[in-house]
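Duplicate of #3305? Posting structure anyway:
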């Protein structure tokens, strides 16, 4: 991904893609016809811990934006990392209508730290089993953030500034 490239997508409340810019289509490997109406998790890489997505949805359900490092998978099986900023789209009555996501090139130095954290979270998920995976993953994340004295957003933004 180049420094000046931006990936943009929009989804409805159920996470179905309603819009994807040409950069999103290029990186994901999908045609627009095949992408529209598809669940956004079609680009979710299996290396992404479920605890990160729980944080995503908890934040978005509070009508707050979230910044996160995300590893996505392309249709051909290759992958790409992004710094995502996801925001709920609100109507005039403050009701969530969908979600708007803008992704940029992540700082490569940040990915070294994030990859290790996510690997630890995935390990906790596997060790805990399916039923307790999200809780175990979230616990690893909370412990990491506690040791750093940061929120997840503070961590992401400080890593991006490395």
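Output from current build:
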């Amino acid at each position: 991904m180049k420094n000046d490239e931006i990936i943009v997508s929009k989804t409805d409340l159920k996470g179905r893609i309603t819009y994807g810019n040409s950069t999103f289509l290029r990186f994901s490997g999908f045609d627009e016809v095949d992408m529209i109406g598809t669940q956004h998790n079609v680009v979710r890489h299996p290396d992404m811990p479920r605890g990160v997505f729980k944080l995503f949805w908890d934040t978005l359900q509070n009508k707050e934006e979230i910044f996160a490092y995300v590893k996505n998978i392309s249709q051909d099986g290759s992958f790409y990392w992004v710094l995502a900023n996801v925001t709920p789209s609100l109507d005039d009555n403050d009701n969530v209508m969908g979600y708007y996501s803008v992704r940029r090139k992540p700082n490569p130095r940040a990915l070294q730290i994030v990859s290790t954290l996510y690997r630890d979270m995935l390990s906790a998920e596997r060790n805990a089993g399916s039923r307790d995976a999200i809780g175990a993953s979230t616990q690893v994340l909370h412990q990491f953030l506690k040791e750093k004295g940061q929120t997840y957003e503070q961590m992401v933004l400080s890593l991006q500034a490395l």
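Confirmed duplicate; merging threads. The helical segments are 22-28, 32-35, 50-61, 108-128, 133-148, 152-160. The beta strands are 7-11, 17-20, 66-73, 79-90, 96-104.
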